[in-house]
Amino acid sequence: MCGIVGAIGERHITEVLIEGLRRLEYRGYDSAGLAVIDQGGIVRERQPGKVQALADASHAAGIDGYVGIAHTRWATHGAPTQDNAHPHQSGDIAVVHNGIIENYEALRERLQGEGFVFTSQTDTEVVPHLIQSELRKGGDFIDAVKRAVAQLHGAFALGIIRACEPERLIAVRQGSPLVVGLGIGENFLSSDQLALLPVTNRFIYLEEGDFVVLTRQKVSVWDRNGDVVKRPAVELDATLHASTKGGYKHYMLKEIYEQPAAIQRTLNGRVSQGRVALDAFGPQAAELLAKARHIQILACGTSYHAGFVAKYWFEAIAGISCHVEVASEFRYRTTVLPPDTLLVTISQSGETADTLAALREVKARAIGSLCICNVPTSTLVRESDMAFITHAGPEIGVASTKAFTTQLVALLLLVLAAGRQHGNVSADREREIVAQLNQLPNLLETVLALDPQIERIAERFGEKHHTLFLGRGAQYPVAMEGALKLKEISYIHAEAYPAGELKHGPLALVDNDMPVVAVAPKNDLIDKLKSNLQEVRARAGELYVFADRNADVRPEPGLTVFPMPGVADEVAPIVYTIPLQLLSYHVAVIKGTDVDQPRNLAKSVTVE
Ligand code: G6P
């Protein structure tokens, strides 16, 4: 959460900072600010609200300089006000920060005792004051920052400037992502390379504990032990990262429609002669999958739902036991891993703090770690033994769509590979499921054609305050994902239940004011699901059912049926996700919410 940009160059850099922040808004968007060095002093502008407010204010004030730092915030400590917006300043020092300083209260008290005056409620403000305090004790700017950083606990990435030192920009990476962008006669800093693509395609990915000094000509890096290190520069193909709305009203809608192509990219090169290419998961995959007797999946948010679907697949298709848990729970409880556990983490960004921390905690106890991730340069990919990149392409909408369905495709490939290695999936069965996966791009186009019908029905949800989502088997996590989408972007309270649990509580909520959405593919559970739907109808609940057109779910007053194409059970969770995404999208548009950047959320959650 929160995005940092920094720049030092021979040109005015305000525009670079602001464009960088626009590209980082997915990390938080409740306030933004920047500070540049101009004529020996710090000039700072901060605004509550989105980056555009900062851009307008900076332009009006004519702010410019050759070195500067900027920040877009997702509030943790203190409300999203101007005073709490970054950069925070202490005299001639300004700091931007992503992460959390856990011992800020003790530091604040001590610094107040030294006479420093605090003007915000943030944890961050201790950092510039602490550097200032260290400077008073002697030594140069770099020494003072090093001594100050050594006193900070928590996870953080920092960008620091000092007015009387316009020749350098200092950065620290300790638990929160940070990359250096390399230019000619100019260098940059950012939480994500995406922010810097307009100015460079050469990057240094910093490691945990790195301390960096950027000048116009040089980037010097010290590692966590204080030793000077040379980190490799990586050149990226910038065309892969281009991102526009391409004629769609919102990124989310564009990303929903991109799913057939994204899934095709996930499959490309990963299947050969109708079977899964084992090395798609890494060179050790064949051996580790054969050895794995248990799978532990860890993830957060939508990625957790993908893992939950995979649990059903691992046990039903591959015959391998599988547990799935949200990373923030797993990492803080005492856990017992069965022998020969393979750890699988799932993350769109590869930077989610809880998922990373869980990986670090469990890694040594597992036989190996595999991540399913969309960002090849991410920390999760670098720290896992094996990685499968989903190739969904950049996902800008905060509510995840194509990242989810491509994760599901990746996971189904993994299940097939593991099942084969265990002798539980025959070559014919594998070919059959791979053929179903290959048909998905076309099949999803058919499902997307339901869009106008879903849009019309979405009107009926606009005035509702609650919605229930039902599914059974592997469709239960799909219902969970449907409920998450609706609450994230339309702010309607939504809950998902396995349909068989309805009678154990949620049925008490059902009346004509509570729409109930169900996913009903034709499978062994369809008759049981139909009985559950009758329980809802008997209580005057309004039902919206996405049903296999051959499942004989008939429309009647109070029961709207969306006819879905017939699909094999294995790939049904992927197919039935699409209409739920469309439903949430249209409800949010009707409610007039900020679809791509819903309130209080952020796309990349780099704090615990
Ligand atoms: C945030 C995002 C979700 C995402 C979750 C996990 O909550 O808003 O869309 O599913 O983080 O993120 P990850 O990048 O690890 O998949």
Please, how many helices? 18
Report the β-strand fraction as a percent range.
Answer: 15-25%
Morphology call? globular
Average pLDDT: 94
The largest pleated sheet is described as: 8 strands, antiparallel
Structural class: alpha/beta
Question: What small-molecule ligands were found?
Answer: 6-O-phosphono-alpha-D-glucopyranose
Contiguous uncertain segments of 5+ residues: none
| Strand order in space, largest sheet | 3-2-4-1-10-9-11-15
* Share of helix, binned: 25-40%
- Count of individual beta strands: 27
Overall description:
It is a single chain. The model has no long low-confidence stretch (mean pLDDT 94). This protein has 608 residues and is α/β, with parallel strands linked by helices. Strand 12 and strand 13 form a beta hairpin. Bound molecules: 6-O-phosphono-alpha-D-glucopyranose (G6P). 6-O-phosphono-alpha-D-glucopyranose binds next to helix 9.
Quick overview of this protein structure:
By secondary structure, this protein is of the alpha/beta class.
